[in-house]
Specification:
Order of helices and strands: EEEEEEHEHEEEEEE
Number of helices: 2
Largest sheet: 6 strands, mixed
Number of domains: 2
Radius of gyration: 18 Å
Distance between the termini: 37 Å
Structural class: mainly beta
Strand order of the largest sheet: 11-10-9-8-13-12
CATH superfamily of the largest domain: RimM
Number of strands: 13
């Protein structure tokens, strides 16, 4: 079974290297010589074999792929989510981390308390910022990035199989700040 394991974010160097954001399910014992990363290109599942893989903290890595040795070729991968083959044993683990939600399609129902009105906006959950004081989700909603508290009371539903999350937020929350 293949599970979403990260996203290819930006170029690194001039010889086809890229920066990766790793989701929580990405294995600590990843063996690049024997395990490919899978991306979907033009509707086809394509294995990417790492010629270089170097972790950068818990949620980042630098990679280069066999057969992609130029900046132009690596550029075609930017923004793609990659998957990794997981064993049945790892797949049975029901625990999840907030980082697992990165890349989910997001729906936010905005409630205006005074008027009793609401509206719904759509986008995606772009990132998660872990902080003991104030963990935050970065949502891309209607073409702009907003930060919302990663709090249970704002999450209405999570569909792991469909990779969707629904939030219920106070109307003015997404207008407080933008990046």
């Amino acid at each position: 079974m293949k599970t979403p394991a990260g996203r290819i974010n930006r170029l690194f160097g001039t010889e086809g290297g890229v920066m990766l954001s790793l989701y929580a399910p990405f294995p600590d014992d990843f063996a690049p010589a024997t395990t490919p990363l899978f991306v979907t290109i033009d509707g086809l599942e394509v294995p990417l074999w790492c010629s270089r893989f170097e972790r950068r903290g818990q949620t980042g890595a630098v990679a280069a792929f066999d057969d992609l040795d130029t900046e132009r070729r690596a550029e075609e991968l930017l923004g793609l989510e990659f998957r990794i083959e997981v064993t049945e044993e790892a797949a049975d683990d029901d625990e999840f981390y907030m980082e697992d939600l990165i890349g989910f399609e997001a729906e936010a129902e905005l409630i205006a308390e005074e008027q009793g009105a609401h509206r719904t906006v759509h986008g995606r959950l772009a990132d998660y910022y872990d902080s003991e004081a104030n963990p935050l989700f970065e949502l891309e909603l209607e073409g702009r990035a907003v930060l919302v508290p990663a709090a249970e009371e704002f999450i209405a539903r999570i569909d792991f199989e469909g990779r969707r999350i629904k939030f219920v937020l106070p109307e003015g929350l997404i207008d407080l700040q933008t990046r």
